[in-house]
Design a protein that fits this description.
heterotrimer; A mainly alpha (about 45); B alpha+beta (about 180); C mainly alpha (about 250); B: about 180 residues; five-stranded mixed beta barrel; 7 strands
Chain lengths: ~45, ~180, ~250
């Protein structure tokens, strides 16, 4: 792999991982929020 | 129990696994309620298993890694001084490639490496890395064979000593970099 | 029979608020700007060449990870002092994001090592202490998953969260204390007057972007942790109520 390939892998891998983690949080939040009444979600 | 349905409709959900209402223990509890409801025993096995694996890995890393942390490499002068002790032993040696000493051989390259006033001739088997060249600080992996060092891995070092030891290389590199941008 | 009400039809993200939306927008704008500067505008480094572009990921991720682990330690101290759920969940949330960022640091570092040193990995001091640090926080997260009472889990993990932070100065100083392959100071460690303006700007931009991302993820992750605790309580309360109802029915 060329240097460009390594650079691309580093940048893409980093932001893909952060995006996947954010998506995971959102998914789990939706499930958990469905079980919790609105008054317990004070930040809304 | 419809409790299950609204929760486990997505079996991949980590929440489904965490809360696991299908296996809720419905017998009245006497103590404080726990952080983990659900199938405690299975969850406990996984969690404790994970902790054990992490602890074992930590022990392994500490023993193998830190044992020779202080001697990740010998400088050329130190290695030359300890030639007898190191005979037949595989170790790493650090130094700068002597300019004009690099000769391509059938199996790789031969060159002289110097540091702290000592020089050792090296026979390297295999292709040297791209950044390999005269004056470059390198760490070699291999053994002493007589007075020569038989290396099979060249690691390029990057550190601040590089700047101080080779100021002219920086200027060359800067010039190259600017040419690279302009071109 | 009891039924937990089906979730109300909702499309809004459940852990967002005005603050997180602002942070989210700033983070995304920052990422785009960072990509433009880091990948295109900045010149190749005099010494490192194009590979410096990997360091634009490597350095801010490790900085953000260290910040995350320090937040965990501070929140752990605060938990032991105040004994409130807030500090426990904050410590846990921050540690998880720290582990993510630190894993990315290692990933980027390995790629950089392959093209500059010639190898992905060597058990040299900085990399060894880095592994110890990483494993310690994986252990912290694993310990939190062992079923225990809320207060036991919080207390044990607070103690680990405080002890684990000692790893940071050790890892940081490893390059000064022992000989290794890793450079002694990362180029961004000191403000190098020789460093070109856009390179320095990009380095600080990267740091800002990853700190914003950290804060954004932390707020969401904290709210998720808080929701999960409430959800578990409710499931448990239901179960107890059902059990009581059944025993009333069964009674003659």
């Amino acid at each position: 792999m060329s240097t460009t390939g390594y650079i691309a892998a580093a940048w893409f891998g980093t932001f893909a991982a952060v995006a996947a983690y954010a998506a995971w949080i959102i998914r789990r939040s939706r499930r958990a929020a469905a079980l919790v009444p609105e008054e317990d979600q004070r930040w809304m | 129990m419809d409790v299950n349905e609204s929760l486990t409709d997505d079996p991949e959900s980590s929440d489904a696994a965490e809360i696991a209402p299908s296996s809720l223990d419905l017998t009245p509890r006497t103590g404080q309620h726990t952080a983990a409801s659900g199938h405690r025993s299975l969850r406990a096995v996984f969690a404790i298993g994970a902790v054990v694996v992490v602890v074992l890995a930590l022990v392994a890393v500490l023993f193998t890694g830190l044992r020779d942390a202080s001697t990740f490499f010998y400088n050329v002068d130190e290695a030359a001084d300890r030639r007898e002790d190191l005979a037949g032993e595989r170790f790493r040696m650090q130094g700068n490639v002597v300019p004009d000493s690099v000769v391509t051989t059938e199996s790789g390259v031969s060159f002289v490496i110097s540091y702290g006033g000592a020089e050792v001739p090296v026979d390297h088997v295999g292709d040297p890395p791209e950044l390999f060249g005269p004056k470059i600080p390198v760490v070699l992996e291999g053994t002493f064979v007589g007075n020569r060092f038989a290396s099979d891995e060249i690691l390029i070092r990057h550190d601040n000593a590089y700047d101080e030891a080779n100021p002219e290389r920086i200027q060359e590199a800067e010039r190259d970099a600017q040419q690279g941008v302009a071109g | 029979m009891s039924v937990i009400a089906p979730p109300p039809p909702t499309i809004r993200p459940t852990t967002s608020s005005r603050a997180t939306r602002v942070l989210g927008v700033l983070s995304i704008v920052g990422i785009v700007a960072l990509a433009v500067f880091g990948l295109f505008i900045t010149p190749p480094d005099a010494e490192l060449g194009e590979t410096i572009r990997i360091l634009y990921m490597h350095v801010p991720t490790v900085s953000a990870a260290y910040v995350a682990f320090v937040v965990t330690a501070v929140a752990s101290v605060a938990y032991l002092w105040k004994r409130t759920e807030f500090w426990d969940l904050l410590a846990a949330s921050s540690a998880e994001i720290g582990v993510l960022f630190f894993a990315l640091t290692i990933f980027n570092g390995m790629l950089w090592g392959k093209i500059t040193w010639g190898v992905f990995w060597r058990w040299e001091p900085r990399l060894t202490t880095t592994t110890v640090l990483f494993l310690t926080y994986l252990g912290y997260l694993a310990v939190r998953r062992i079923p225990a009472t809320v207060s036991t889990r919080a207390t044990v993990s607070a103690v680990i969260g405080i002890l684990a932070v000692v790893n940071i100065p050790i890892t940081h100083k490893a390059v000064d204390w022992w000989r290794g392959l890793h450079q002694e100071k990362t180029i961004f460690g000191t403000v190098d007057p020789e460093m070109q303006g856009t390179q320095l700007f990009t380095a600080y931009l990267g740091l800002t972007v990853f700190l914003l991302l950290f804060l954004w993820l932390l707020i969401h992750r904290f709210r998720l942790a808080w929701l999960s605790e409430r959800a578990e309580e409710r499931v448990l309360d239901r179960a107890i109520a059902d059990r009581r109802a059944e025993s009333v029915e069964e009674a003659p």
